[in-house]
Amino acid sequence: MAPPVPETERRAFRTLWFGQFAAVAGLTVVVPLLPFYLASLGLGPAEVAWWTGVSLAAPAVAQLAAAPLWGMVGDRYGHKAMVVRAHAGLALAVGLMALADGPAFFLACRLLQGACGGVVGATATYASTLAEDGRRGRALGTLFGATGAGSLVGPLVGGVLAGRFGFGALFGCVAALLVVAAALAAVLLPNRRAARPAAGGPARPGLRATLGRIASAPCGRSLVAAGMLGQASVFALVVVFAPRVAELTGSVAAASVWVGVLQAATWAASLAGGPWWGARNDRGRPAVSFAVAAAGCGVAVALQGVPASPGALLPLRAAQGFCFAALVQSVQHTVCRVVPEQSRGAALGTANGLVDTGQVIGPLLGALLAGLLPAPAAFAAIGALLIAASGLAAWGVRGDAPKPVPQRLAPSRP
Q1: Lower Cβ count inside 10 Å, N or C end of the chain?
Q2: Residue 220: enclosing H or E segment and its boundaries?
Q3: What pLDDT score does 412 carry?
Q4: Do residue 342 and residue 226 come from a single domain?
């Protein structure tokens, strides 16, 4: 029987869960409303489309550069500070969005969001050092449940608040919620010292050595590449999904309702799937979980081009959400296994940044597929990409050790 989880650890995970929920809910409030907000700044339809695309891509680009550096700071000085920094940085960026008087200022806020935010990566790193090896999968899976809950609640609440109080008040409320999350993290998270190399052991590896460790492990490089491809596939689906629902309903108003219902079904299934896949990763190999889940997700997406009514999409979207919950956390779990704890922040920051580049590539890919192919073929192509990601993960299974690698660390607990 596994030993009971200490109460301080339970409290820390509740704090991390709330913070990640607040961050994801806040961002999913902002993203769907971007075109409307940019239009309110006086842009025309063509300019709105261009600035929306650039604003969507900006945080991922900035985070790709900043996340490994923040991870190295956390590895040296402690990861609690990085959790607080991520929430406070995101609060600052979102708060400044309320003051934007033009698209350039708003774009600068989005870049600041990527450079100083990174809540998901910061919380995953802290959780991976707090949880014991046999509970790490469940910890990461539960945190992904917070992502699912935030993605479910955020758009519903955001639309109501924006319609009633305006965009400035909406951004202010999100920023205030993130300030609360930062304060709770500062007060409630245990102040753990940074992991140090053991006496007589190798020195703390630099960023290049850490990246080399991931790239030299078959499971590491395969899972990061598969995660990037899986993320790109799901974001490509965003571009083709709403038009497909509109085609099935024949009405924009009815399509708007159905898109909301189907999105809710997807994220509700992810909320349930996160802990389930996490527990599976604790018992086995994360690369296997990724391969199985990406294949299931690919089949569910490919079949979404077949139904003749939106109601028939419900089980497919639920299956997609349940399987998608395994992808990012399995990449994170694998990275934790192939790098020592004293360089885990830099490793997870880099891996999350690379996976999130799929958010930039995916919408462009979806637009290309929508322009070249009929809807059923576009869904089939996106499903095939997810199955290709499954193949990449399966290729890396041969190097995915069933037990965590030795860490050779001095004690990191206070």
Answers
A1: N
A2: helix 218-249
A3: 39
A4: yes
Domain stops at, among 135, 159, 193: 193
Could you report how far apart the first and last alpha carbons of the chain are, in Å?
Answer: 26
pTM recorded for the entire structure: 0.83
Same-domain status, 49 and 118: yes
Out of 193, 225, 248, a domain closes at 193
CB 405 within 8 A of CB 266: no
| C-alpha count within 13 angstroms, C-beta hemisphere, residue 385 | 24
Same domain, 153 and 236: no
pLDDT in tens, 321-376: 999 999 999 999 999 888 888 888 888 888 888 898 888 888 888 888 888 999 89
Whether residue 199 is contained in a domain is answered as no
Instruction: For residue range 387-400, list pLDDT tens digits in order.
Output: 999 999 998 876 55
**Which CATH number do you get for residue 112?**
1.20.1250.20
Q: Which range of residues forms the domain containing residue 289? A: 206-401
Contacts 24+ apart (CB under 8 A), 74-78: 74/122, 74/125, 74/194, 74/345, 75/194, 75/195, 75/204, 75/342, 75/343, 75/344, 75/345, 75/346, 76/194, 76/204, 77/194, 78/191, 78/192, 78/193, 78/194
Other beta carbons within 10 angstroms of residue 165's beta carbon come to 12
What DSSP string runs through 44-108?
Answer: -HHHHHHHHHHHHHHHHHHHHHHHHHHHHHHHHH-SHHHHHHHHHHHHHHHHHHTT--SHHHHHH
